[in-house]
Amino acid sequence: MLRAALATPLRSEDAAGTLIIGTVLTLLSWIVTPFWLIGTLSVPLLVVAAPLALAPALVARGYLLRVIAVGIDAGDGSAYVTDASPEAPPFVRWGRLYRDGLASALLTAAYLLPLVVGLAAVGAAGAFVELGRVDPAPLAESIAGTDPEGLPGVDAAVPPATPAYGIVGAFLAVVSLAYLVAFAYVRPAALAALAAGGRLRDGLRPATVGRTALSGEYAVAWSLAMIALLTGYVLAGPFVPLLVGVAGVFVVRVVVHTLYGLGASHAVEHAESVVTADDGSVSDAESEPPREPKEPAVDPSPGSNAVRPEADPAVQTGRSVPGGTVDPVPEEVGTVDLDSLVEGSGGDSDDGGDRADDRDDRDELSDDDGDDRPGAGTADEFDWGP
Fold this sequence. Notes:
Keywords: Membrane, Transmembrane, Transmembrane helix. It holds the Pfam family DUF4013. This is DUF4013 domain-containing protein. The chain crosses the membrane at residues 16-37, 43-64, 102-129, 164-197, 218-236, 242-262. This protein is an all-alpha fold and 386 residues long. The chain has one domain (2-287). 61% of the residues lie in helices and 0% in strands. The chain is built from 13 helices and no strands. The chain has helices at residues 2-6, 15-42, 50-53, 55-76, 94-130, 137-144, 162-197, 206-213, 216-236, 244-279, 284-287, 313-316, 349-372.
């Protein structure tokens, strides 16, 4: 599995172009987004530039989500995950990458929301204590188990609530650390569900995400991904100022997200089937036909505003040409019979006879016209020929 993931960045229709674009997007996300956040704090009006300032980071997120989808497809296409050979997708359909990156960011925020709400509640309680609206003495007494005026081993000058603050702070630190570890383990499973289903709600289904996170293949893939992530960042970190490290960081992220997809490939499919059986309905993945480029209902004519279908990724990266055959031009349009221009050509005898009949008809009409004119038959009469 790790060997297949390490070879993924090289298995691409345009490996060099993908590496360059990914490096540039990673660098821009490190520079543009922090500067925009700092500028927004000083100039709140800059918040309107969020779609543009966050574009590099969102596109990069969308690409990594597409890498997970490629890993899932490669794992489903092989009997064993170790036999899969995923290929790094090219940077095409940028609008879709932007939307997928936004969905990935919203999913991450949704899973971090409980921790943020809990810390905010604790902070609000601490603010009430500092303002004197809440007396912490009963809490300190219940925690210490003795009279707050005579705590053993505590100086009399120390406020009675100080030991309680330390205990509560240590408890919050342990809970926050445990939540972040669980978040780091569950989030890739949620991203895999999002990549497989294509909708944000797919990554928020507890049954699908839970079954994926509890599978053995996902646990192994996640462990390998953490090892690759830490090792890659340690090796690429010193070279970040030389821009080589930025490319290394991008490659490491591609490898890690490929492992996420490979590990969750079979688990996501099984989880979706189980959820479908529990709901008694057809799952979205089974009911939807395979995704294919949508063709316009009416062929776009020159000068019209109809949107043409997007070209294949291989065509966009310049690795191939559009498929299909060109409709031949009808022979009747813009063609000239060269045999008719050459005297004595060996053309069809029937065609020659038809042309001779046409000349005879024209001669007869000319004779009739000549007889009808005044002065016909005089010496000045024009000789129209036999």
